Amino acid sequence: MAVTACNRNPFLKEWNNPYGFPPFDKIKTSDYLPAIKEGIRQQSEEVKSIVGNPAAPDFNNTIGAYELSGKTLDKVEGVLLNLVESDAAPEILKVLDEATPLTTEHEDNIFMNKAFFERVKAVWADSASLSREQYMVAKKLYNKFVRNGVALSDADQARMRDINKKLAALSQRFGNNLLNENVAFQKEIGIPVSSYPSFMTTCADRAKREKAFKAYSSRGDNGNENDNKKVVLDIMRLRTEKAALLGYGCSADFILADKMAHDSKTVDVFLSKIMGPAIAKAKEEVKDMQVFMDKDIAAGKVEAGAKIEPWDWFYYSEMVRKAKYDLDENEIKPYFKLTNVRNGAFKAAERLYGIHIEPVGGLPVYNPEVKTFKIMDADGSLLGIFLTDYLPRPIKRGGAWMTNFREQYVDADGKDVRPIIVNVGSLGAPDDSLHLLTVDEVQTVFHEFGHALHGFLTKCHYKDVSGTNVARDFVELFSQFNENWAFQPEILSTYAFNYKTGAVIPDSLVAKINKSLTFNQGFATTELCAASILDMKWHELTPDTDWDHLDVEAFEKKACDGMGLIEEIIPRYRTTYFNHIFNSDYSAGYYSYLWSEVLDRDAFEYFQKMGLFNPEVAKSFRKTFLEKGGGEEPMILYRQFRGADPDPAALLRGRGLE
Ligand SMILES: [Zn+2]
User: Fold this and answer.
1) Cα angle at 306 between 303 and 308, to 5 degrees?
2) Which residues contact 188 (CB under 8 A, 6 or more apart)?
3) What is the pTM assigned to this prediction?
4) How many Å lie between the centroid of ligand 1 and the Cα of residue 445?
5) Going by C-beta distance under 8 Å and a sequence separation of 6 or more, which residues neighbour residue 114?
6) Ligand 1 center from residue 446 Cα (angstroms)
7) Within its chain, how far is the Cα of 362 from the centroid?
8) Do 495 and 341 touch, CB atoms closer than 8 A?
9) pLDDT 10s digits, 481-495
10) In whole angstroms, how large is the CA radius of gyration of the chain?
């Protein structure tokens, strides 16, 4: 019986098509769980034989062997973890619910295995003999063991396992509650959550905007069965306890210990230096908007004495933008048809890095909206397979992201296995069959493709450090850097064609777009920085916190007052719908976008100084950064590329906040 089942399960076979592409046309929902169980069994056996190897531990027979283990699990998780975000049928979510406790336990079994750790420790003790990439892989793995509590007593380890299991379930619960709240929002307001900003920008009815704002900003905080307040407290209580078990005063310090920023104090100081100039600018923006509101009051459209409220921001800032920059989104959009914008992102990369991108047919995609491409180097060798999944679908998570179906690595036979990467988003208005994009959405396409380039251009040996497998506060450098090319006149002339006339975007419009890029940055920076500080405040709670009497709303209010937030702005995510930090990998990490921005703005200023398409600088960026992945310490790479430390003020300059 078992053999027959294995033979039919596509995850348990070699994917022998040309690119080792996942056979989505053959995968059935019932294939996942058996494949996960088999994958766990296989990797457990592999780990057993590494640990039982009679030879003295060395890099290859211990860490190198571990890097090559778990192939089946990688395949099935690569598919499953992608689809739950982008094509999440209820059956798939159910599979994840069942799989998560199994994979969590499996990870704990590996990283709490003391005999395995002894071997890794022996390799690490002799790290001077390793290549630089091996050193980074060994360091990462060694830390992973320590951070998983391998050195704890048996009793503490048992507690840690219990905590990990509970945390995995709680995070999922947070996410599911939020999905339900998003559905309720759509029912009440009539638009999906992903359309909230565009609705708030265009809806002239102030009462409707207020209603939408209140529904949006109270998600997970409605006292119903989807309320996330208790879930948040349970998560934070356990995270804090886990950090304490490992010897850290708060979970932020535990999480940050292996990041670029390293500790909570460094992040707090960093954010406080941004918040001041951001709020000062936001206050000016409120004044600019009030002028337009006063006109509406005079015209009898808004009641007398009204002041700008959080639900007015999007609407009146658009008015200011039109007046100040004479820029109307409707005037721009015809030049930004999705397929053209995508081609523009391709063109920019081709010009900078000498690569070549072309469509590839015949691959069995998971949804008909997915398009497939081949990315090739200048010498014609394959760099990887690229999927785009850009359009809104009801069962797609909001936002945009890049992930791998397969990581790059060199296999046991010395073959360079190239990555399979997807960019996912919900771009264009749901009712627009032409898929015309806003300026923000154009930046999103370039942003996610920047992550993809980091994945494609990587030339590593070990998958644990290849591509985007770098510290979280380093990874956004590459995506945010890539956004810079979207509105360069030399690149616009290759893609920004009017969908009706074919005419290239006029210079006057290009100038207006570039002038307006620093518009509203007081607001944008403030809401981002506020969410980052709120995230830090949660993760800086200490074990002596009185969890039973902690009031989530009061805690958040105190945090906002403390950072000097003005009442016209709320954090970009409030606690009860802050999925990044309670159900994703960005806990004590939302600051990463701003942290990376110092690097990407500084790097781009260097390009500006040396010539935007200077081939030597682009080559150095590719060789130093994009090829290295996590094979070297981020700051060492940065100094190699730039010849200097990044200038912190580059962020404020780039956002026009100086
Ligand atoms: Zn990103």
Assistant:
1) 135
2) 211, 215
3) 0.91
4) 10
5) 150
6) 10
7) 29
8) yes
9) 999 999 999 999 999
10) 25
pLDDT, one tens digit per residue, over 276-319 is: 999 999 999 999 999 999 999 999 999 999 999 999 999 999 99
Tokens (6 digits) for 8: 């039919």
pLDDT tens digits, one per residue of 468-521: 999 999 999 999 999 999 999 999 999 999 999 999 999 999 999 998 888 999
Q: pLDDT for 540-567, tens place per residue?
A: 999 999 999 999 999 999 999 999 999 9
Query: Which residue from 596, 573, 599, 598 is spatially nearest to 221, judged by alpha carbons?
Result: 573
Q: What is the distance in A from the centroid of ligand 1 to the CA of 443?
A: 11
Is the CB of residue 311 less than 8 Å from the CB of residue 189?
A: no
The amino acid at residue 283 is K
Q: Please report how many Cα atoms fall inside a 13 Å half-sphere around the Cα of residue 264, on the Cβ side.
A: 20
* AA identity, residue 423: N
Question: Which residues 6+ apart lie within 8 Å of 223 measured at CB?
Answer: none
Determine the Cα–Cα distance for residues 371 and 360; give it in Å rounded to an integer: 9
Catalytic residue, chosen from 38, 133, 285, 448, is: 448
The token pair that represents 342 in the structure block: 């995508």
Tell me, yes or no, if 567 is annotated catalytic. no
User: Do residues 519 and 324 lie in contact, with contact meaning Cβ atoms separated by under 8 Å?
Assistant: yes
Reported residue count of the chain is 658
Residue 504 CA to residue 495 CA, distance in Å, equals 8
Q: How far is the CA of 173 from the centre of ligand 1 (A)?
A: 24
Structure tokens at 201: 């920008």
Q: Mapping DSSP to helix (H, G, I), strand (E, B) and coil, where does residue 409 land? A: strand
Q: Residue 590 Cα, ligand 1 centroid: separation in angstroms?
A: 11
Distance of alpha carbon 410 from alpha carbon 176, whole angstroms? 37
DSSP element (H, E) containing 35 = helix 32-51
Q: What is the pLDDT of residues 91-106, one digit of tens each?
A: 998 999 899 999 999 9
- d(C-alpha 475, C-alpha 451), whole Å: 8
Alpha carbon of 37 to ligand 1 centroid (Å): 32
Q: How far apart are CA 197 and CA 189, in angstroms?
A: 13
